[in-house]
Amino acid sequence: MFLSRSDRDKLLELLFQRAFRYSEVPTFKLTSGKMSSFYIDCKKVSLDPEGAFLIGEQIFDRIKSLPVEGVGGMTLGADPIATAVSLISFLKNKPIPAFIVRKEPKGHGSGQQVEGALQPNGKLVVVEDVVTTGGSTVRTIEALRKEGYSVLKVIALIDRKEGGAERIAAEGIGFEALYTIDDFMRLVRFQKK
């Protein structure tokens, strides 16, 4: 365990130790079917009490000045992140409701794809755990736009730097990641010394 200088460093440390897996040989199969030398399972941190707190604080700090009326994303990776941010927003006296986007509209009841106590045509921030190509993020944006919402910004915990940022920007939406794969690879190199 290396010494943390800030909450940002503590969160990176948790993600590196608990969520990040690396192999010299590409052994991890991604959603796209592509093989990779690294895999990041952010739920190992976003569902942890300390991790959730640090994630909520970091993301809330980046959106608190926006006219945001909801924070969330595609289930399942975004769910604990959105909840953490919403809880921190309440503690900071600027409550922002969380929302969940289902992969498909609900097959019963109201048939909703977007769940949460959102205002009609609200301004939202989309959160992601890991962005690779940006495909799931764009599907999330499309589902929200179809329901009349506008997306102010997308914030990811980690950008794998495989085209996702550019794809999101092509939708006319700002993108920010707390960390990139470069942050993790620096730690891999540090460990090898």
How would you describe this protein?
It is a single chain. Helices cover 39% and strands 24% of the residues. It is of the alpha/beta class. The mean pLDDT is 94. Helix 6 (164-169) links the parallel strand 9 and strand 10 (174-180). The protein has helices at 7-19, 43-46, 49-63, 78-91, 135-146, 164-169, 181-192, and strands spanning 20-22, 28-29, 35-36, 38-40, 70-74, 98-101, 114-115, 123-131, 150-159, 174-180. Strands 7-6-5-8-9-10 form a six-stranded mixed sheet, with helices on both faces. A two-stranded antiparallel sheet has the order 1-4. The protein has a two-stranded antiparallel sheet with strand order 2-3. It has a single domain (7-192), classed as 3-Layer(aba) Sandwich (Rossmann fold). Its cofactor is Mg(2+). It catalyses: orotidine 5'-phosphate + diphosphate = orotate + 5-phospho-alpha-D-ribose 1-diphosphate.
Can I get a quick summary?
Helices cover 39% and strands 24% of the residues. It has helices at residues 7-19, 43-46, 49-63, 78-91, 135-146, 164-169, 181-192, and strands at 20-22, 28-29, 35-36, 38-40, 70-74, 98-101, 114-115, 123-131, 150-159, 174-180. Belongs to the purine/pyrimidine phosphoribosyltransferase family. PyrE subfamily.
